[in-house]
Amino acid sequence: MNPQTTLILGVGNTVLSDEGIGVYVLRRLEELQVTGDPLLAPVEFMDGGTLSFELVSPITAATRLIVIDACQLHQPPGAVQTFTGLEMDEKLRRRGGSVHEVGLSDLLDMARLLDELPPQRALIGIQPHSLDLGEAPTTAVAAAIPAACQAVLALLDRWRDESTVTEESLDACC
Question: CA–CA separation, 145 vs 62, rounded Å?
């Protein structure tokens, strides 16, 4: 059985204030990895910037994908919400226009066509306040960075537990 590979992809344009929140959360998670958080030890981090077709290869190489991005949640600025699997796919299809070169939905569709869509995938969406020029997130959105990190860690913990159960189940039945 191939080892699980987890890619955490932070997306956003850091010169458009809250649009860059995915990258800011990614940087914080990288700091947590350095401090030795065991959930982050086997994880690969990637700054996806404003997305491009070059991301298809790392996405298709992963068995687990977590994308962190500014997302219209129709909630107060800084709200954090997790969308997994098909729920993620549906959210991305409804999202509408993207400021990115290509949309995340496009990248996932390419992975799907290659029959290499990560079976475990999630979107951690953070409600932006401003997408104006600015080299830092607004106060409300910056305050959501710890909650977004917690959402990522909770997801990694859940997936780790699901993998353990799955491997034990396979060993028991086969």
Answer: 24
Name residues of the chain where pLDDT drops below 70.
Answer: 1-3, 95-102, 163-174
Tallying the residues shown for the chain, one arrives at 174
Buried b or exposed e, range 80-107, using 16+ CB within 10 angstroms: bebbbeeebbebbeebeebebebbbbbb
What is the C-alpha to C-alpha distance for residues 41 and 167, in angstroms, rounded to an integer? 20
Q: Residue 46: exposed, middle, or buried by beta-carbon count in 10 A (0-12, 13-18, 19+)?
A: middle
Distances from the Cα of 88 to the Cα of 1, 13, 45, angstroms: 26, 21, 19
Q: Is the dihedral of CA 55, 56, 60, 61 positive or negative?
A: negative
